[in-house]
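User: I've been going back and forth on whether these two constructs are worth ordering. Before I decide, could you fold them both?

Assistant: Sure. I'll take them in the order you sent them. The first construct and its structure tokens:
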Amino acid sequence: MSRPLLITDCDEVLLHMVSHFRDWLGEVHGVDFDLSAGDYSRAVKRRDTGELLVREQTWPLLNGFFETEMHRQTLVPHARDALAEIAVYADIVVLTNLLDAHQERRIAQLEAVGISHRVRCNQGGKGTPVAELLEEYRPSAALFVDDLALHHDSVERAAPQVFRLHMVAEPELATIMPPAPRAHARIDDWAEATHWIRARLTSGLDGRDLPVIGEQP
């Protein structure tokens, strides 16, 4: 019989990223990144001029961080132990939105902190790769973890049978980021999330049987 499948994001779920990215921008590029700003289009500014950086200017900086600064990233509390516990009864895939050129760096980065699972890089919405993983693994049940609401939307459209857990492990972001409406639950701590994940993956139900956050009373 097939095993359940956990598909999890990496940045702000397994590894802290954005706070380290902010520090690097300030140290190396003289750029301030206000994590408390709800509107990221107005959060990144040149320190000397106050000029706002548009998306086309910030993407090269983000790519540069992943090219040379991944060693700065730190493990989210309880993530390693949680995955070890889940791996006893489920397969695990790390589905990370990075350029394919960074895949080997990501694998090595995770292995260095004791996380050794399959890594798949992706660009864009995660619904399609999640559906492809379901076709490949044919799991008895599947659960998706991500910090971004847009990916929960994408997965619901492509694979509504998948349970969806919204997790924002960066405290500075968790306080300002609302629960993803199309996720089934919001849990920002892996120690707590392991119980919810096991219950869902062994319930005999699927994501279509649960109300999403946006529909809960």
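The second construct, handled the same way:
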Amino acid sequence: MDWPNLQKYATENESLGTAVAKNRIVWMGDSITEFWIATDGDFFKNKPYINRGISGQTTSQMLLRFRQDVINLKPEMVVILAGINDIAENTGPISLENILGNITSMAELAKANNIKVVLSSVLPANKFPWRPDLQPADKVIQLNTMLQKYCKDNNLAYIDYYSKMADSEKGLDVKFTNDGVHPTLSGYKIMEPLAEEAIAKAKKN
């Protein structure tokens, strides 16, 4: 059983070769990253952006594939957007501290390999269509506070999607989603300039 789904991008990774890729940026994440390229392919077109999102994944799974899907591609930078599926307990219950630990482990692995790091806030969510028994809103806020502090303490660029996309109920505004979790095109259009601003900041660091 390929729990971290190492096979998903194995062939594509091999075709990229092993040379250091100037300006290459890997986008590491879950469905929100994976669906980005399908929803707004123009954002990735003619740019050195490599999408390595896998739907449904938790940070524990991403950490296991981080070497294959990020480090071995020798990018200049990685943009990590992760954590919502951990809060949804997709691979079982996990503390916020351990979610943060998985994300910071990815960041530390990247830095050890001279890869610049951009960390993203988790998008707002106050319900999960597949886990209606959970109430995630406050956990999302707590995790984002922890992520933002880690970025400040370690001089990393942080993308604050949350404050631009949350509604008064601590959920993802209906203007940006159809299911309360995944952005529509209008949602990605809010995210894109925020991401590129953080990328520019990280390049200067």
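Notes on the second construct follow. The chain has nine helices and five strands. Strands lie at 25-29, 49-53, 77-81, 116-120, 157-159.
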